[in-house]
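Our consortium's second objective concerns turning raw sequence data into structural hypotheses that experimental partners can test. To show how far this objective has progressed, the report includes one record in full. It was chosen at random from the queue rather than selected for favorable results. The single chain below, 91 residues long, was entered without modification.
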Amino acid sequence: MEKTRGGNSLAIFGQEFPSLNKLIDEADETWVVSPAEQALLQRDRPEKSIQVVSNIVDVPGSALPFEERKDLLFIGSFQHPPNVDAVGLGK
């Protein structure tokens, strides 16, 4: 992952995120979903609390056989293209 920093702006793969460091600076704690994100952000802000809170949840299996299931609950933002793709696969 290519990361450069100029002023108060974080650049990842050439895309600028000027407000990200400002938000981290203003927050008491920042949560990310992977150790890679944590390491990336802590390079510039080692004094800040940046914690990994995984969004991967171990869900126990259903007692209902797959063939008898009929509905799906999807929780996610449609501003994230993989989520749009996932909902499209369920149609």
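The partners drew two points from this record. Helices lie at 18-26, 35-44, 81-89. The longest helix spans residues 35-44. Both points have been shared with the crystallography group to help prioritize constructs.
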